[in-house]
């Protein structure tokens, strides 16, 4: 035990001796938070739209008033000649144009003469259409009830607006943004943890290359203790990365994880074992640090992409989604997603079992390869 403690302290001193390693292992994992903030931090902003009213009717005026009443929407009446300039400059994100005949088409029960334009596409127009078309459908129903009589329509419409019944609304918290930010942050954290684990395991190869490893074996230190101490250091760094990232996400940036912090940490600790096990497999099959680094790049980045660490897995083809089911990163993200949806650990036994199986398989492969190493002074 004393030998292992000495090896752990030696490896930690070696690892954090340079500022470069401090940045690599402790600062880089936080990059996912800032990327998530850039990607999703501005989703609650107010959308500014322009309105061009060629119709000048009462119904078009009421429709514009309805748009003004929508939350997260700022309406600005503009002239037809300034539409292009305002769209291209970004001062407005969409333009709703009511052409001549809009009011008559609504009274006739066939809404027409309305156009929605945006250079940002469906991401902006979809939000406007959802509310606007539903409102116009309500107007069409009233018009059908009065058989197109404009005076009777306005009386019924005013009665509809000033009805005696009241509707109490309660705003529900939109958790989609925080879930997306958590997902992206954890996705980048997973990739960085895997690279960090590989770099720490490469210390084995580095000390073998500079003959430090062989000098250590001339002392009471055994190869098994040496490997085990490297695993302990690896796990310490992985756990610190997970705790620091998730804690900052929750307590500093106040982003709701939509699950208990300890549950997320348990999943990430299990993944830490997977990352360390895979790093040992890479080291076991490598003869030098360069080959280990090349093999890690070949394995980690593509599998992270296939697993959905950088984007939602749902946007990828079904064939790619099937491939991702054989990757531990995918199961880690799937477990965290289900925890966000309200599942407890009792219902996620299969996920936890699969993650544990990945970790066990990698460690067994690494142990087998080390034990079959026939080179002089083999690891085990």
TrEMBL record:
<feature type="transmembrane region" description="Helical">
    <location>
        <begin position="226"/>
        <end position="255"/>
    </location>
</feature>
<feature type="transmembrane region" description="Helical">
    <location>
        <begin position="348"/>
        <end position="368"/>
    </location>
</feature>
<protein>
    <recommendedName>
        <fullName>Transport permease protein</fullName>
    </recommendedName>
</protein>
<feature type="transmembrane region" description="Helical">
    <location>
        <begin position="292"/>
        <end position="313"/>
    </location>
</feature>
<dbReference type="InterPro" id="IPR013525">
    <property type="entry name" value="ABC2_TM"/>
</dbReference>
<keyword id="KW-1003">Cell membrane</keyword>
<dbReference type="InterPro" id="IPR051449">
    <property type="entry name" value="ABC-2_transporter_component"/>
</dbReference>
<feature type="transmembrane region" description="Helical">
    <location>
        <begin position="261"/>
        <end position="285"/>
    </location>
</feature>
<feature type="transmembrane region" description="Helical">
    <location>
        <begin position="21"/>
        <end position="40"/>
    </location>
</feature>
<keyword id="KW-0813">Transport</keyword>
<dbReference type="InterPro" id="IPR047817">
    <property type="entry name" value="ABC2_TM_bact-type"/>
</dbReference>
<keyword id="KW-1133">Transmembrane helix</keyword>
<feature type="transmembrane region" description="Helical">
    <location>
        <begin position="183"/>
        <end position="205"/>
    </location>
</feature>
<dbReference type="Pfam" id="PF12698">
    <property type="entry name" value="ABC2_membrane_3"/>
</dbReference>
<feature type="domain" description="ABC transmembrane type-2">
    <location>
        <begin position="150"/>
        <end position="373"/>
    </location>
</feature>
<keyword id="KW-0472">Membrane</keyword>
<dbReference type="InterPro" id="IPR000412">
    <property type="entry name" value="ABC_2_transport"/>
</dbReference>
<comment type="similarity">
    <text>Belongs to the ABC-2 integral membrane protein family.</text>
</comment>
<keyword id="KW-0812">Transmembrane</keyword>
């Amino acid at each position: 035990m004393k030998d292992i403690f000495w090896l752990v302290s030696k490896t930690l001193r070696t690892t954090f001796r340079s500022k470069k390693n401090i940045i690599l292992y402790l600062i880089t994992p936080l990059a996912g938070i800032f990327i998530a903030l850039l990607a999703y931090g501005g989703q609650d902003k107010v959308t500014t739209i322009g309105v061009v009213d060629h119709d000048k009717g009462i119904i078009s005026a009421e429709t514009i008033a309805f748009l003004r009443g929508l939350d997260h929407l700022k309406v600005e009446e503009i002239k037809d000649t300034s539409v292009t300039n305002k769209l291209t400059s970004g001062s407005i994100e969409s333009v709703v144009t009511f052409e001549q005949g809009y009011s008559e088409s609504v009274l006739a029960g066939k809404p027409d003469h309305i156009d929605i334009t945006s250079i940002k596409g469906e991401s902006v127009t979809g939000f406007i259409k959802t509310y606007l078309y539903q409102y116009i459908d309500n107007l069409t129903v009233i018009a059908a009830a009065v058989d197109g009589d404009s005076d009777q329509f306005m009386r019924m419409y005013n009665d509809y607006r000033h009805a005696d019944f009241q509707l109490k609304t309660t705003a529900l918290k939109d958790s989609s943004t925080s879930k997306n930010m958590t997902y992206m942050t954890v996705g980048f954290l997973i990739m960085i943890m895997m690279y960090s684990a590989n770099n720490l395991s490469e210390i084995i190869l580095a000390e073998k290359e500079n003959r430090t490893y062989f000098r250590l074996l001339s002392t009471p230190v055994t190869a098994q203790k040496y490997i085990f101490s490297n695993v302990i250091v690896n796990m310490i760094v992985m756990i610190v990365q997970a705790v620091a990232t998730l804690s900052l996400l929750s307590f500093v940036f106040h982003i709701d994880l939509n699950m208990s912090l300890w549950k997320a940490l348990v999943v990430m600790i299990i993944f830490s074992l997977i990352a360390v096990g895979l790093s040992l497999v890479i080291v076991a099959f490598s003869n030098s640090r360069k080959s280990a680094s090349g093999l890690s790049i070949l394995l980690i980045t593509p599998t992270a992409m296939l697993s959905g660490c950088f984007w939602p897995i749902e946007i990828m083809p079904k064939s790619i989604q099937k491939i991702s089911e054989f990757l531990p990163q995918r199961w880690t993200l799937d477990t965290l997603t289900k925890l966000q949806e309200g599942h407890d650990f009792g219902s996620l036994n299969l996920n936890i079992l699969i993650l544990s199986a990945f970790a066990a398989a990698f460690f067994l492969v690494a142990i087998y390869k080390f034990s079959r190493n026939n080179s002089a002074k083999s690891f085990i």
